[in-house]
UniProtKB/TrEMBL annotation:
Membrane topology, as annotated: Multi-pass membrane protein
The keyword Membrane belongs to this UniProt entry's keyword annotation: yes
Major subcellular location class: membrane
Location in or out of the cell: Membrane
Protein name: SulP family inorganic anion transporter
Pfam families (UniProt xref): Sulfate_transp
Transmembrane residue ranges: 12-31, 75-96, 108-132, 152-174, 186-205, 225-250, 314-344, 364-391
SLC26A/SulP transporter domain location: 7-369
Keywords (A to Z) from UniProt: Membrane, Transmembrane, Transmembrane helix
Amino acid sequence: MPGAGTFRDDFGASVVVALVALPLCVGVAVASGVPAELGIVTGVVGGLVTGWFRGSSLQVSGPAAGLTVLVYEAVQAYGLPALGVLVLAAGVVQLGMGMLRLGRWFRAISVAVVHGMLAGIGLVLISGQLYALGGVEAPGQTLAKLRGVHELGSQADLAAVLLGVGTIAAMVAWRRVPARLRIVPGALVGVAAATAAAVLLRLPVEKVRVTGVLAAVSPPGWGDFEVLASIGAAGTVVALALIASAETLFSAAAVDRMHDGPRTEYDKELIAQGVGNSVCGLLGALPMTAVIVRSAANVEAGARTRAARVLHGGWLLLFAVAFPQLLEIVPLAALAGVLLHAGWKLLPAKAVAALWRTHRGEAVVLVVTASAIVVTNLFEGVLIGLGLAVAKAAWETSHVHIEEVWEDEALCVQVLGNASFLRLPKLLDALDALPHGQPVRLDLSGLRHLDHACLTALEGWERTRSPLPGREGVI
């Protein structure tokens, strides 16, 4: 925690991070299909609870755009009262992973799968927020949303579209202003400008609905825990825990490169996230994860210790309790603009191009993962991506090579490398091409790996050949 020399820096950074977090907390909640206040509750917990832990000193936690898709699907499937149970269970899973010291294993996840997951989330987020931008009710499925985009022009509310586009334009333009002004976050500038325009011009656009933070808190009842008996709900819990953990630890790795302070302790950070999500679940709020946008703002604003993120939670709580009426004048189209901008930044166009030039197989994994998320859902899409990455790795490592050597007028066939079922067709084709009627000694001593499928096939092939006395080296 801070001393006299760091408190001033942490205090200033906390104000900046709170201003960055506020529109994102509200926007993520609205996109997730839950009351706006629940996003603020998660932001407060991310600061006042998770912020105290020592896992990562400068990264900031709160509701994340990367979880909106999964939360929205969960709320639609099981209802808002069940959300707290799912988030609580995910927090317990994270706690268990941290205590079992599994944090380091998240660094072994294929980067292509991670980029594909982010791209899929970005596409789903964009497809949904385009409808919110135009004030049009969106279809339920992502593919239906994408198919209906061309009809939005005739249905959209022009005033709402202009507010949303203006918000995005302000955010983009703000990146070009002098550095001393950029201490005010672009998202806040864009939302404030759109809100001012809506109020001054009295535009009849839909606004954020606020009932009060304390009134929105709804702890789950005992009956709500029955949802965990569902296989689908259990899958949602696992998906929440894994995706939130992966995003947190990838964010931690990125933040560590931005400062010279203490490095992240991955297992402690997992425990911190587990405690935070458990508290969010008990309050019936959104799940949390460390967010690179807020974390980067924290570092760039000059934060020195974890006090900055704790204080940012206090600012969020103060604003939500003291000035909730200010949220009610914010147009939903402005928040849609913020999330559209966030979704666009999740699309890894540069990563795809770089992978295509150097590792085309990885590029295919990325595109397939993103496409699978759009076609199915986040959990199934990530599983498909992981399965494809594992299959690709298995294929690339299962190299088998056959050498033919004549020894004393006998043909010795040496099989080298890794013989797995993936290479079995190639292996049998090469063996079947050997001259028939000629005794063959099959030498498998050069194999580093031989699975049961290949062993069985080789034994069957041997029985069809002329026997050769003294079959040394045959397995």
